[in-house]
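From the shared-data thread, chain only:
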Amino acid sequence: MKTNQLVIIFLFSGLIFSAEAYSSEVKVTEMTTSEIKQLTDEGLKEWGKDNLPRAFELLGKADKAGSIPATIALAQIFHSSDEFEIAFPLLKKASQAGDNGSSLRLVDYYNRGLGIKKANFVQGKKLLDKLLVVNFLPARMYQAEMFEYGRFGAEKDLKLARTIYLELANKAFRPAMLRLNTAYRQGELDLKQNRAEAQVWLTRATNISPEKNSGSSEKGASHD
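Structure, as tokens:
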């Protein structure tokens, strides 16, 4: 669902579609922890049913009341609709609250210049390094891709990228297993084509649930 559709939804629900309005229009009264959780759960449920007007109302109130899961969900919704300038402060808030999935997405925002005036590789690296220190595997995967493609300030280094993919694959990180499957099958990452080895990694990957190490705590990720 893209911007023009979301604008219609916001007009229908009485909300103004702008970051400034989002920060000022949603008013909440003091609530207990259980009330905030209930509000968040109801908002997520409405989002799952694609009832966005009601989801925005509930999640907006929950976010203002201090619900980080609601903040994460709102960031995901705005990100999915390419409203990066609105998603950015929500991702920053969730990142500062300790959500690693939001932090990694924020790294990508800094590196690609999404929601900000221009890319900031320095800030992106600083945040990525923090995720690597806590051994957040999706961040290590992101780093491997930086070396593989030589982007976001990193020099292209296929050997290092391959080493990281193998390291992650041996930790049962499914995306890395799938990358090795493709690399062996197509002769990428300076590897010789080896369909037998490719099948080994594919078989190992299929035995792992995608949700097990998806790297995101964002509920409703299928909406992306």
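The mean pLDDT is 86.
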